[in-house]
Design brief:
By secondary structure, the chain is mostly helical. The protein contains 18 helices and no strands. α6 packs antiparallel against α8 and α7 runs parallel beside α15. It is a multi-pass membrane protein. Keywords: Cell membrane, Membrane, Transmembrane, Transmembrane helix, Transport.
Amino acid sequence: MKAVTTRILHDKVLWIAVVAAGLSLFVGRPQVHDINWTTIWSLLALMVCVQLLNGYHVLDQLSQQLLTHSHNQRQIVQYTVLLAFVGAMFLTNDVAILTLFPMYIRLAHQQHLPIAFPTTLIVLAANLGSAFTPFGNPQNLFLVAHYHIDGLAFLKLSTPLMLIGLFSLAGLTYGIAPRSTKAAPTRLFPQHSGKIALTILLFGLTLLGIFQIFPLGWTTVIVIISGWLLNRTAIKQVDYGLLLTFICFFILVSSFSHNAALTTLIAHVTHTPVASYLTGLTISQVISNVPATVLLANFTNHLTALYWGVNLGGLGTLVASLANLLALKQLLFLTNRPTVREFFKVFTLVNLGLLVVLGTIGYYWIR
């Protein structure tokens, strides 16, 4: 409990959200019923499942299998990017970054690999891959809950962006020189086949709750109790600060939604699909795509436009996605300041360039 409290107290993003929510009280009067508890419970159950799988080193084992087949640094980056892309679809973009960043940086130090460009690609892969599934990132989870869409409808919506993102990333990886490398070191992991299978069942139950096939409240209770019995440490590793951050986002948005001048302005800039798309894309660069999603969803029925806007909106600036900031925190902890400065330059250049390219494609797709 002490560790959980400490993480919450040191969560800078949460405290920024708390301050923003507090200041928003001067803008409008928030309502308790505006907090989307469906999203909160879905996110909680999902994070428990993710932490259970993470505790069993599922992604680590997959990454090791891929890396043992790498013969040069380009292949190492390609496999890592692919793993981030696919892993983020099921384990969220945050977990993909938390798992793969340390792994890649260890390899980079061992084999003198470049860091700035490959880590930028890993972040891009995590953001673009997570956009494919309803549970890959928080904004998708919110969109599913807010617009009440089923899984198949969501995948039809997200598949074009997934394919565009995959081909874009594949092309970018050829910017890595195919220099030969030594064999990747092998790690031995404890076997937890039974617990992994049970966790996958819990994950499936969570999806049933998200899509309202099974009562979400009971789903969350079952997942938490099962998670506690399977691995108490995993329960303690859940990012409860993110849940509180989301509640702050809902309070912030509720305050804005009860301000006549702001509602008129937001309604004006979201009245068409293209307007919703461009507004989501733009606002995400400033306040991040999760709060942008929560804010704009109350004013537009153009789901496709909003989905494309906020998911592509995760590209661009460092603050455009919470996952971007998480990646920066990882680099600050694992590397030195010159490497971080180089990462910032490369990240900004590549992200803005890709935002222009994919943003233009998205614009014509929405039209």
